[in-house]
Amino acid sequence: ELRRAFEQDQFALLYPPQIDLRDGRIRGAEALLRWQPPTRGLLSPVSFIDVLAQTPIAPAVGEWIMRTACAQARGWRERVPGFRIGVNLFEAQVRSAQLRNVVERVLGETGLPPEGLELELLENTMIRHDGALLQVLQALRAMGVGLAFDDYGTGFASLSLLKRFPVSRLKIDRSFIRDVISDPEDAAIVRAVIYLGRSFGLEVIAEGVETKAQLDFLAANQCTQAQGYLFGRPMTAQAFTSELARAAVLP
Predict the structure, then answer these.
(1) Which tens digit of pLDDT belongs to each residue from 159-192?
(2) Residue 149 Ramachandran class (φ > 0 left, ψ -120 to 50 alpha, else beta)
(3) What is this structure's pTM?
(4) How many CB atoms lie under 10 A from the CB of residue 102?
(5) Smallest Cα–Cα separation from 42: which of 31, 55, 32, 30?
(6) To the nearest whole percent, how much of the chain has pLDDT over 90?
(7) I want to staple 5 with a disulfide (CB 3.0 to 4.6 A). Which of 10, 120, 211, 245 is the partner?
(8) How far is Cα 118 from Cα 140, in angstroms, rounded to an integer?
(9) What is the mean pLDDT of residues 151-160?
(10) Maximum Cα–Cα distance for the chain, whole Å?
(11) 179-186: which pairs have CB atoms within 8 A and are 24 or more residues apart?
């Protein structure tokens, strides 16, 4: 079914905005995969992503996501200098010896500069791979491509990964943000990740921000970027373009 969906262009991307908390402006977006079968409506990744990740078509779907998102981001970057698009990688892409070549090819075809792309990696993916992956990631960072640890703090990776791998940003998982106001342990974890990021010279972005109280907590603790329903639900490329145009005229 998933193979047929890919062949018949049933996959689509939605884009939640990423906000700079210092000025409230949109600075980037994340590309999120959705599946739209003819008879079942729009399906979120929880319905299919684990299965898709194990199929032989995962690398091809991942490359399609990257190319589509980068092509969109090129136009958005013209409106917002420094705009960056986040793209999640399947583990099969991380395992592939072609990852660097794929990234170079996609950037060349779409015209997006390397600084406009951020690849999102899971901690657990990193601990299952050897020095060959490290060399690929170092080469991508040398090109200017950003590397983010997605859902940081939910995996089994040690802090030494921050020293070993050339990541440029940490993404605080939404599970810690949800109760950050009411749960002292979640609040301590969020503060610790922000502190780690600052200590390692990394950017930090919080996911799943839904309330003004959560936003105020993050701002008070010097988290500089966030995404979540408070700023806008994941939207189509057309809607995102309209949102950028609207934001451009705000004082």
Answers:
(1) 778 888 899 999 999 999 999 999 999 999 999 9
(2) beta
(3) 0.93
(4) 16
(5) 32
(6) 79
(7) 10
(8) 10
(9) 73
(10) 50
(11) 180/214, 180/217, 181/211, 181/213, 181/214, 181/217
